[in-house]
């Protein structure tokens, strides 16, 4: 059996951690896309206010299988 996959780029944000940002991004992608199979964390960034990190963000390359 063969299949074809597609990759889409999303950015997700969290006020807690990179791990949470990844979880938020994957959950949102899975709510919209069928057949999500994995993701690659392409970029990580933080937003700083004063001397504190106030936001973590990740850019994900999400892979999903196309319907037949």
TrEMBL record:
Pfam families: Dodecin (PF07311). Gene3D superfamilies: Flavin-binding protein dodecin. SUPFAM superfamilies: Dodecin-like (SSF89807). InterPro entries: Dodecin, Dodecin-like, Dodecin-like_sf. It comes from the Bacteria. This is Dodecin domain-containing protein. It comes from Agromyces bauzanensis.
